[in-house]
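# nightly structure sweep
# worker-07 picked up a monomer target from the shared queue
# config: single-sequence mode, recycle default, output format = structure tokens
# input follows
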Amino acid sequence: MIWLLISVQLIELLWVLFNYLGLEYFTVDHSVVHLGFLAWSHSIFSTVVLAILAWLVIGIGFKKRSLGIAVGLGILCHIVLDLALHERDIQLTPFSTGPAFGLNIQSIPLLAIIVETGYGIFCWWYFKGSKTLLAAIVILNLVNIPFIFNLMPGVNDLLGRVHYLLPTIILIQILYTWFFVWQFSKKRSPQTAGAK
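# output follows
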């Protein structure tokens, strides 16, 4: 489970790191956060390269083919969701000067929360998760409502002034999500546990 949790957030972890290092940046304009430049962590090319590297190292190098494929797909699924949710800030490569991509679902907050929560519930249903895990998925998505609906514009303005604050909030969200998903995924039924 831990490898899958890392795979779907690897790009986000790189975004946090690259923001701390100053390689990537975000801006705040009229209390709205724009991710600005995130081409090293979130370009389509870098995502595909990371997915292939994960598959090569885990699947071929460590001879865990199924895990290598799962981790590679986990990395790829992040950029697919971001292409739907982000404004046009996803570049083809880190070196692109051409068009950026994104359907900007985030500009319609209600639709954004439905898509994100719905995707989590679909994954829970597909992998036959516990009821506790479902509750965690729903609650963790509800915690994001103030950010998605921009209910705290003063906080967003503060994020623009203190450059490390947003990456730190994202890092904390990733870590507590991992903790809750890890804890609640262990509470599977004996039939599901035996199937693994």
